[in-house]
Amino acid sequence: MRATDADAVWTAHLSQEPPVTTRDASGVAECELTGTAQELYLALWNRLPLPALSGDPELAALWRETSAVV
């Protein structure tokens, strides 16, 4: 996740285990969500549609289906 209105990047690692999130841009992202911090926050809580997406859309769908707060 990359905030466009702040110097902030978070990397979430998805697997069979609970997601692990770090506040950095470590490694190559297979999927990236970009938007304001508020857009990202609300989208990750399933309160807004996902903001701009690059990469694999199936990973974003996986997040919404299994990891996001509902």
Detail the topology: elements first, then pairings.
Blueprint: E1 2-3, E2 8-9, E3 11-13, E4 20-22, E5 31-35, H1 37-44, E6 52-55, H2 57-67
Parallel strand pairs: 1-5
Antiparallel strand pairs: 1-2, 3-4, 5-6
General description of the model:
- By secondary structure, the chain is an alpha+beta fold.
- The protein is 27% helix and 27% strand.
- The chain has two helices and six strands.
- It has helices spanning 37-44, 57-67; strands at residues 2-3, 8-9, 11-13, 20-22, 31-35, 52-55.
- The chain has a four-stranded mixed sheet. It has a two-stranded antiparallel sheet with strand order 3-4.
Shape descriptor reads globular
Radius of gyration: 11 Å
- How many β-strand stretches? 6
Measured between the Cα atoms of the first and last residue, the distance is 19 Å
The helix/strand class is alpha+beta
- Main pleated-sheet profile: 4 strands, mixed
* SSE string: EEEEEHEH
Proportion of residues in β-strands = 25-35%
| Residues in helix, % | 25-40%
**Overall average pLDDT:** 87
Strand order of the largest sheet: 2-1-5-6
How many helix segments? 2
Low-pLDDT residue intervals, each spanning 5 or more residues? none
